[in-house]
Design goal:
Elements (H helix, E strand, L loop, with lengths): L2 E4 L9 H5 L2 H13 L19 H17 L2 E5 L6 H10 L13 E5 L5 H11 L4 E7 L5 H18 L1 H6 L1 E6 L4 H9 L2 E5 L12 H9 L4 H14 L9 H14 L4 E6 L5 H15 L7 E6 L8 H6 L4 E8 L27 H18 L4 E6 L4 H22 L9 H11 L6 H10 L2
Parallel strand pairs: 2-3, 2-4, 4-5, 5-6, 7-8, 7-9, 9-10
Antiparallel strand pairs: 1-10
Helix pairs in contact: 2-15, 3-9, 4-9, 4-12, 10-15, 11-15, 12-15, 16-17
The protein binds 5-phosphoarabinonic acid (PA5).
The site of 5-phosphoarabinonic acid has 14 residues, from loops.
């Protein structure tokens, strides 16, 4: 496996026998998962997705990606939450957070419909001027406000720019197989459609067409991603805590939670992993944060955030633990620090050193300091930065959160809390059928 769990820096906080004692609970959680008898069992499709996916659709994704690459300068991915975070995480991680600014023969990729902001839509529309544009609209329900509004705006834009017929050939829709309104609308309009499987929830959908189409457009090897995930599915099939790193991670974070460590910070040392942390936060936050329970998922990118959040982590409230992702061979050319005979900054001891070596040393020093400061450090080591290794990591987190949620006693596959803001927003905006709620809310407004 390209992924290894290293618990050495957790040892001062958890004894080995405490992990062993979790075995029976983990085995029960494993049974719920593999027999499909646990809460949320209608949404377990992600488990088998890496092996058991629609090959014909996969080929259509590759064909559509190649068409998009040939016909557009910009792909706009419209979606929110699980409908865009996975693709963005993978593209940033394997290509670059500066992907759009790189010299490349694949289209720029922008994201829309993930907020409610006139300013960002105006900016994006102006970026599109004079350039050829395609859309990938991703929404399982087809009725989520943010992407639906963005789709209205960009559909109008495309139809004005190219006419209805050509616009239709530039719009790709990823949605529910047959029930949703977006599917019916797309079929009528002549858009090519891809499927969000019924049994795969948004935050678990990165390895379906939801993530794969935009990822393939960016030139990433989606087959490698799937193969990595398939290898992970095999590696994490046993309920034996001593052999299954994903389950061990789930067990350890649950032990820490029971000891009052209620916030987990996902730490990475590379800007290209920042969006991966955003994906991870949704996966863990939405899966576990319910019924008054759950570990709050936070994230930092070091060393950047050591200069903003470092003080708190070292020395603030002691309810934290860190999960550090360490990539052993990032696969990019390393810089050597140039010598400065004047030694203006007093850093001549670094002359000629490889920058990545300095980063790794910063990581070692930080991990030791944080452990000394009372912050347990779980380490996830990745042997490289490639599609196969990332596929493994995505699956590692997916199966870990499923087990972790069952250990916590929640349904890891629903998100009932997300509806509360929507209902209030609809009522206040005057959606028919929400009149009573509107009155009650308005009485409470300032
Ligand atoms: O994980 C989830 O379920 C959510 O983040 C959804 O993906 C998000 O709310 C978007 O929903 P939809 O795809 O129906 O537009």
């Amino acid at each position: 496996m390209s992924i290894q769990l290293n618990l050495k820096s957790v040892a001062p906080f958890i004894r080995e026998h405490e992990i062993d004692q979790m075995q029976s609970q983990v085995s029960r959680a494993h049974d719920l998962l593999v027999t499909g008898t646990g809460a949320g069992s209608a949404f377990l499709g992600w488990r088998t997705l890496p092996d058991d996916y629609d090959r014909a659709e996969f080929d259509r994704i590759l064909a559509a990606a190649s068409r998009i690459q040939k016909t557009c300068d910009i792909l706009i991915v419209i979606g929110i939450g699980g409908s865009y975070l996975g693709a963005r995480a993978v593209i940033d991680f394997l290509r670059s957070p500066l992907y759009n600014n790189l010299k490349k023969d694949t289209p720029d990729i922008y994201y829309a419909g993930n907020c409610i902001s006139s300013a960002s839509l105006t900016d994006l529309l102006s970026i599109c001027e004079g350039r050829d544009v395609c859309l990938n609209v991703i929404s399982k329900s087809g009725t989520t406000t943010e992407p639906a509004v963005a789709f209205r705006i960009f559909r109008n834009y495309l139809e004005k720019k190219y006419g209805k017929e050509e616009a239709a050939s530039r719009i790709y829709v990823t949605t529910d197989r047959k029930r949703g309104t977006l599917k019916q609308f797309s079929d009528k309009a002549g858009y090519e459609t891809f499927v969000v499987p019924d049994d795969v929830g948004g935050r678990f959908s990165v390895l379906s067409a939801v993530g794969l189409l935009p990822i393939a457009v960016s030139g990433i090897d989606i087959r490698g991603l799937m193969e990595g995930a398939a290898d992970a599915a095999k590696a994490y099939a046993s309920d034996d805590l001593r052999r299954n790193d994903a389950y061990r991670y789930a067990a350890v974070r649950n032990i820490l939670y029971r000891k009052g460590k209620t916030t987990e910070i996902l730490v990475n040392y590379e800007p290209y992993a920042t969006m991966l942390s955003e994906w991870w936060k949704q996966l863990f936050g939405e899966s576990e944060g319910k019924d008054g329970k759950g570990i709050f998922p936070a994230s930092v990118t070091f060393t950047t955030d050591l200069h903003s959040m470092g003080q708190f982590i070292q020395d603030g409230s002691r309810n934290l633990f860190e999960t550090v992702i360490c990539i052993r061979r990032p696969g990019t050319a390393a810089y050597r620090i140039p010598a400065d005979p004047m030694n203006v900054d007093g850093l001549s001891f670094l002359d000629g050193k490889d920058l990545d070596e300095v980063r790794d040393t910063a990581m070692q020093g930080t991990r030791l300091a944080h452990t000394d400061g009372g912050v347990p450090n779980i380490l996830i080591e990745m042997s490289g930065r490639d599609a196969h290794a990332l596929g493994e990591l995505l699956y590692f987190f997916e199966i870990a959160v499923a087990i972790s949620g069952y250990l916590l006693g929640v349904n890891p596959f629903d998100q009932p809390g997300v509806e509360a803001y929507k209902n209030n927003m609809y009522a206040l905006l005057g959606k028919p059928g929400y009149e009573d709620r509107k009155k009650a809310l308005e009485a409470r407004l300032d």
